[in-house]
Amino acid sequence: MCNPYMPHLAKIIRIIPQMDDVRLFQVRFEDEKIRDEFKHRPGQFVMVSVPGIGEAPISISSSPTRPGIIELCIRRAGKVTDALFKLKENDAIGLRGPYGNGYFMEKIKGNNLLIVAGGIGMAPLRSLLWYSLDNRDDFRDIILMYGAKNPNEVLFKDELFSLLHRDDIKCLLTVDRDDTGTWEANVGVVTKLFDLVGLDQGKDNSFNSMDASSVTTYAAICGPPIMYQFVLQKLIECGFPKDRIMMSLERRMQCGIGKCLHCSVGHKYTCTDGPIFTYWDVMNMQEVV
Amino acid sequence: MKFLKLSTNNLHEFILSLRKLGEVHIPIKKGEKSFVFRKMNEPGDIDKIQLDYHRTILPLKKYFYHPTETMFEFSRDGFVPPEQPLNVHDIIFGVHACDIHGVLTLDLVFSGKYQDDYYFNRKKNVSIIGLSCMPDEFCFCNSMGTDYVETGFDLFLSETPGAYLVRVGTSKGDDMVNLSKELFGEITHKDIDAHKEYSLARKKAFKRSLDIRNLPEIMDLEYESNLWDELGNRCTSCGTCSMVCPTCYCYRIFDTINMDMESGMRRRQWDCCLFRDHAMVAGGHNFRQSRSDRFKHRWLHKQQSFAGVFGRPSCVGCGRCIEDCPASIDIVAESNKIQGVGREQSCLSPTTE
Lengths: 289, 353
Ligand code: SF4
Ligand code: SF4
Ligand code: FES
Prior knowledge:
The structure holds two protein chains of two kinds.
Chain A: E1 8-19, E2 22-29, H1 32-37, E3 45-50, E4 54-59, E5 70-75, H2 79-86, E6 92-99, H3 105-108, E7 112-118, H4 122-134, E8 142-148, H5 157-163, E9 170-175, E10 186-187, E11 217-222, H6 225-237, E12 245-248, E13 264-265, E14 268-269, E15 276-278, H7 279-283
Parallel strand pairs in A: 7-8, 7-11, 8-9, 9-10, 11-12
Antiparallel strand pairs in A: 1-2, 1-6, 2-5, 3-4, 3-6, 12-15, 13-14
Chain B: E1 2-7, H1 11-17, E2 23-29, E3 35-39, H2 61-64, E4 68-75, E5 78-80, E6 90-95, H3 97-110, H4 117-124, E7 126-131, H5 141-144, E8 155-160, E9 163-168, H6 171-179, E10 184-185, H7 189-205, H8 215-221, H9 226-234, H10 240-244, E11 251-257, E12 264-270, H11 291-310, H12 320-324, H13 331-338, H14 344-348
Parallel strand pairs in B: 2-6, 6-7, 7-8
Antiparallel strand pairs in B: 1-9, 1-10, 2-3, 4-5, 4-12, 8-9, 11-12
The structure holds iron/sulfur cluster (2 copies) and FE2/S2 (inorganic) cluster.
FE2/S2 (inorganic) cluster (FES) is lined by residues 253-256, 258-263, 269-271 of chain A.
């Protein structure tokens, strides 16, 4: 009988530092059967256990198109993540999931996709990014806009820079400030990137513009609250329908499966109804931020 | 459904006969005005039974969903759930309709795509015998639609003068009756009439009511009302209302570690959404920082959010949270207030401009 609370052992294969308090953990289930059965969608999360310390929800950064190894981009923020940062390669953790709704892939397919990330918000969006690139024919135009405070805080730097040369995605990277003098992309807040592409109504669909008001574009955004505020404003100005903007919410979670009530926000549970909500859903929730 | 009659004089004997099937639990007095379900250790305990109790301190959830429990033992080799003892069979006698609804509500929560077998494994071994009741000043189950039950019991006893009308709900219930067939008789038309009369008298006996149909809408409209701040100021976040509620189910999960610093237990414990850290995330941000937000959240969840997921409100109108709140918060009276009950006159009278 399967116990939905049962964590399965997974081994830390590699730890790749991203910045001071952010690391990418590559993990793999010890049990081959569980490894094969684990199927996730972009935007879903897992509950990560450090035995003796507890569990925390972590979004999955790897794409389902690259199974076997699960990548978790983790910011050190509480007791579980503190404990994770003390672990080394080959140490074991507990893992259960995947949970949550994930991005609405069935709906996005056949449409344009605009991904807007700020800071660590790239973590869940990276799964969506690679899923859509690996299934490139299923989508129309894809634009990625990613902003970080400074060059040292850009996640997945090499990987994202390599996208600059691809012609099947328009990748726009920016930093608020460049103290290093080595940054080779844009400087300025992420909303400034909107000036580099047309998101206005009625323009034709090419990499330099997406028809935001029509039914052909979905936006997925994730980042710090202040970024949400400005990006949402921009998207609404561009005429995006509120139910085509997907946001990812973070809440305290204990069970991850809709039973403990810790993650409730307004009338919804973040763990089972979310973590991906449309802007329209979010507008109708109390206590959102 | 099968109906039988059990003379009041035969009740004790029937309850004693159940001991052949398992441990029998009955409502007894705990304090001056409080009651609990307690296991009968010897036949003489039957004299302690309180057939006209209103509500026990804790509802039935304590049997299926323990206040704290071990979910796993862990070690280097992984997580292993503890063995649950499956030998005992508990028979709980004298459960009121609202509390049976409370159990049915928890069934909804713990079933579904992710079934919680800690709960269901215990529930498998418990039989429930319902008992009719007359409301006191705290009851409002009639407003919540939980004053009668159709499922969730093995037997249900309804009081009539001199006898109980016994409704047999399950085959297990039928087995119980068959243990001492001679104690039961056929029901007559007179019994049915007596039962109907009791039912009508009970309807009239409720002293409070709550209109739940427009409550969610009004609460939404009054989301910013000062009333919530007022209640938030009175509430001390003691958690009593959640602990005693038959349908409050939230819990927190925590690990304990053994001396070897390697093995230990993952446990869970009843929690309460009125506790300060309930919605606090790693990093310290609290999504329901103020007590009035948390207070509002509890009642909105009971009346509205739960219904959004499961189709009906989770409150069953047992009155426990009202009777037991140390700050004397009467959520039904406050809801009436927010709905403007008692102020209808002023709205309906023609306005003079
Ligand atoms: S019982 Fe009363 S004081 Fe205690 S948490 Fe509930 S509402 Fe607040
Ligand atoms: S909210 Fe209060 S009245 Fe309603 S079921 Fe819970 S304890 Fe009983
Ligand atoms: S985390 Fe327990 S209900 Fe969502």
